[in-house]
Amino acid sequence: MLSVDLDSTQASSSSSGESANSVPVPTPSPPRTSPRPPTPVRRILRRKIGVAGSRSALCQDDRTELFTRLVNEEIEIQTNAPPGCYAAPKSGDLLLWTAVIEGPAGTPYEGGTFFCNIHITTRYPLAPPKVEFLTRIYHCNVNAQGDVCLDMLNDKWKPTMSVNTVLMAV
């Protein structure tokens, strides 16, 4: 054991035991190799105020859950989209979708093709997506900037709703 002699301030090696006037030198503990798993409180804090322990504001479990849901919704839209509606993530980014809506027959929009962006936040499905028309359209629920103003995309949003539900409402 390495000990320090307080009288001479020289380090000496002691094999027979510690002397009365020596202080043991602490050895450093090994570095931590795995991070602490996120507690429920940390997960809530990350969601509510965006505190991140790593580079992302979402913990790995939340990202996996969100992306799994969005992939499932993409599959659902490909198989059960409303007539004349098509939507898919843009360039592999699951948080930004492009939608194409064909104007329904018998309406003023018949023959029109309308392009939309659907912006999905990291709080989805607790928070609604934001829908904006890229194609100029005159509609009471679409403002001059192309933003869709529907109750279901604001205070009437429920986590059980999906991108497919949004397409049907638009």
Descriptive keywords:
alpha+beta; Ubiquitin Conjugating Enzyme; ATP binding; three-stranded antiparallel β-sheet; 7 strands; 170 residues; single chain; four-stranded antiparallel β-sheet
List low-confidence stretches. Answer: 6-15, 44-57
Order of helices and strands: EEEHHEEEEH
CATH architecture classification name of the domain at 81-169: Roll
- CA-based gyration radius: 30 Å
Number of helices: 3
Q: What class would the helix/strand composition place it in?
A: alpha+beta
Largest sheet: 4 strands, antiparallel
Choose one word for the global shape.
elongated
- Largest beta sheet: strand ordering: 4-5-6-7
Total DSSP E strands: 7
Strand content: 15-25%
Binned, the helix content reads: 10-25%
Distance between the termini: 76 Å
- Write out the CATH superfamily name of the domain at 81-169: Ubiquitin Conjugating Enzyme
CATH level-1 class of the domain at 81-169 = Alpha Beta
CATH fold field value of the domain at 81-169: Ubiquitin Conjugating Enzyme
- Average pLDDT: 77
Give structural notes.
- The protein has a domain at 81-169: Roll (Ubiquitin Conjugating Enzyme), CATH 3.10.110.10.
- 22% of the residues lie in helices and 22% in strands.
- The protein contains 3 helices and 7 strands; from the N terminus they run βββααββββα.
- The strands form 2 sheets. It has a 4-stranded antiparallel sheet, with helices on one face.
- It is elongated, with a radius of gyration of 30 Å.
- Residues 6-15 and 44-57 have low confidence and may be disordered.
What's the topology here?
Elements: E1 2-5, E2 11-13, E3 22-24, H1 40-49, H2 60-80, E4 85-90, E5 93-102, E6 113-119, E7 130-133, H3 163-169
Antiparallel strand pairs: 1-2, 1-3, 4-5, 5-6, 6-7
